[in-house]
Design goal:
Keywords: Glycosyltransferase, Transferase
Protein name: Glycosyltransferase family 9 protein
InterPro entries: Glyco_trans_9 (IPR002201), LPS_LOS_Heptosyltrfase (IPR051199)
Number of helices: 11
């Protein structure tokens, strides 16, 4: 086996020896550390799909923390380990030592807790992608460079590419898949974000949907509510009263959300977990960015995603978003 890396990553002698002698069938226990919220869990799904393809006989354990259990990809792993961050010091230490011994450890989190877990867990080889390169030498045998300018789900696959694996494209998320020819003429808007300042104001969203309903009368314009009490669509009441093609979709659970997005023509949203689920169902998206770097959440392996952002970082105007929406609809659904 060859180590498929030149200058694009870190590799110590143990990592090089492990890669040169790698027996895929002999890898039986893998620990994947991923401590993150909804959207980043979506981005980890292709990695877990491909990990199973590359190591078909391995028992895969996913380690997370108690606050990040929503949207866990339980369907893609054999076991979930939840790191205790709230109990006594003794309980937290037991939780750290609980995973046991592994053939391979992947740290896909790069948090203080994930680094501590990587340090104390026994594994034949450890792989990570820390932002600070000093942690490569301290913790890992194989290190992958992390970039803000490529889609996160593809960066995670670099851990397997260094072993010579060929991931399938478009990426496979193992979720309901958007079929363009069967899509409903429905544009979905999700105006919320985990951090409120990452999203446009309610007034801006209302104005955008009001104008979009007039400009694109052949589509149903649906505002999707979130799970928090403050993520209600009641602020759109005046507009739903004036437009027959505007409505509010009440909160959907996770199992219903994926097919709902997959059946839609397009999602308009900021940097949110819902947009990441749309990416995972291959549903076309128009992302609105002004705080986060858009490239990390903007796949280019399929042409159905577009991002609206201004080079100077200002909040995009309604005209910018409507222009992007019109161009994307014309490209995807020219009829």
């Amino acid at each position: 086996m060859k180590a498929w890396v030149e200058k694009g990553g870190y590799l110590n002698e143990r990592g090089r020896r492990w890669l040169s002698a790698l027996d895929q069938q002999g890898v039986r226990r893998i620990l994947v550390i991923r401590q993150c919220a909804f959207g980043d869990m979506m981005a980890a799904r292709p990695f877990l799909v491909e990990l199973r393809r590359f190591f078909p006989r391995a028992h895969i354990t996913l380690s997370t923390v108690s606050r990040y259990q929503y949207a866990l990809p339980r369907d893609l792993v054999d076991e979930v380990h939840v790191l205790d961050g709230e109990g006594s010091l003794a309980a937290q230490w037991r939780s750290l030592r609980e995973p046991g011994r592994y053939d391979v450890l992947f740290d896909l989190a790069d948090t203080s807790r994930s680094r501590l877990l990587s340090l104390v867990t026994r594994a034949r080889v450890k792989l990570g992608f820390p932002y600070r390169q000093v942690f490569n030498r301290l913790l890992f045998d194989v290190g992958i460079l992390r970039s803000d300018f490529h889609y996160e789900a593809e960066i995670l696959l670099d851990f397997l590419k260094v072993m010579g694996h060929k991931p399938q494209y478009p990426l496979e998320f193992a979720l309901p898949r958007h079929q363009p020819g069967e899509a409903l003429r429905r544009i979905v808007y999700f105006p919320y974000a985990a951090v409120s300042r990452k999203s446009l104001s309610r007034e801006s969203w209302a104005g955008l949907i009001d104008q979009a309903a007039t400009r694109f009368p052949g589509y149903q314009h649906v505002l999707l509510e979130g799970h928090k009490p403050e993520e209600s669509g009641d602020f759109l009441g005046d507009i739903t009263g004036r437009h027959d093609n505007v409505s509010v979709q009440r909160r959907l659970d996770l199992d219903a959300l994926a097919p709902f997005l997959a059946e839609s023509a397009l999602l308009v949203s900021g940097d949110t977990g819902v947009r990441n689920m749309a990416l995972a169902t291959h549903t076309p998206t128009l992302g609105v960015f002004f705080m986060t770097v858009p490239f990390r959440y903007w796949p280019h392996y399929e042409a159905c995603h577009e991002a609206v952002f201004l080079r100077d970082g200002r909040v995009p105007e309604k005209s910018d978003i409507l222009g992007g929406l019109e161009a994307l609809l014309a490209r995807l659904y020219p009829a």
